[in-house]
Specification:
This protein has 255 residues and is α/β, with parallel strands linked by helices. The chain has a single domain, classed as Ribonuclease Z/Hydroxyacylglutathione hydrolase-like (Metallo-beta-lactamase, Chain A, 4-Layer Sandwich). Helices cover 19% and strands 29% of the residues. The strands form two sheets. The chain has a seven-stranded mixed sheet with strand order 6-5-4-3-2-1-14. The protein has seven helices and 14 strands.
Length: 255
């Protein structure tokens, strides 16, 4: 089945430009250097499935003319991945409740932050009409399988996902061996690549390149990119099958 992957956001948790920063990337006029918080959308079988709702979701949805979201899958409960949940609200006024899929830790945090949505009477109070479902294993949505890929984000266990011939693995510092085995034979692989320097909870550019060399996907794209990596200059130094992703990038693949 054909699918389109749209990069809603490719930046790190503070976004690029970063508030108050005078660096060359933050001051760049190149639109590729403008990176909102990290998220993707998968479109297939007439459905839109979003992975993570960032604080920039409203702007991302306006940019991509998104008028419906059929499901949301969450990778982990950090602010840059969940705080845009309330922006789903207008998309729920004229359709069914939007299902959200999250592991136990993410579900707990979402229900804590957005308690007013889950307190009842949301159909009449103007809150988003959503239903949260436990993500205890692989998930099937409209004929596509979303396979959990467990990774380390510092000391925290979080989720990446493989779907058909593509995979999305953001916010990782380590990919265990069993998860590496799930990421072979891919057409498209998305990996966290924060910056050149090592980071305690994120992959560096050189580490992600090493993983690409080991896994050998046909195409690799880096995401969760900080202001340390200028788009054009960095891409010029990457292998032909590896690129920094950018907001608005669209890729077709088999899901």
């Amino acid at each position: 089945m054909k699918a389109t992957l749209t990069v809603l956001g490719s930046g790190t948790s503070m976004g690029v430009p970063t508030l108050g920063c005078p660096c060359a990337v933050c001051q760049s006029a190149d639109p590729m250097d403008r990176r909102s918080r990290p998220s993707i959308m998968l479109t297939y079988a007439g459905k839109n499935v979003v992975i993570d709702t960032t604080p920039d979701f409203r702007a991302q949805a306006m940019r991509e003319s998104i008028n419906r979201v059929d499901a949301v899958i969450y990778t982990h409960p950090h602010a840059d991945h969940i705080l845009g949940l309330d922006d789903l609200r207008p998309l729920t006024f004229w359709g069914p409740d939007i299902p959200l899929y999250a592991d136990a830790a993410t579900t707990e945090r979402i229900q804590e932050i957005f308690g007013y949505i889950f307190s009842g009477d949301y159909h009449f109070g103007g809150s988003a009409k959503i239903l949260i479902h436990p993500l205890n294993g692989d998930l099937e949505l409209w004929g596509a399988k979303f396979e959990q890929v467990k990774v380390k984000h510092g000391k925290t266990d979080i989720l990446g996902f493989r779907f058909g011939s593509a995979a999305y693995v953001t916010d990782f510092s380590e990919i265990p061996a069993e998860s590496m085995a799930q990421l072979r034979d891919l057409d498209i692989l998305f990996l966290d690549a924060l910056r050149h320097r090592p980071h305690p909870t994120h992959s560096s550019l050189s580490n992600s390149l090493r993983i690409v060399e080991e896994l050998k996907p046909k195409r690799a794209f880096f995401t969760h990119i900080s202001h340390d990596l200028p788009h054009v200059k960095t891409n010029e130094a990457l292998p032909d099958n590896v690129r920094l992703s950018h907001d608005g990038l669209k890729l077709e693949f088999e899901i």
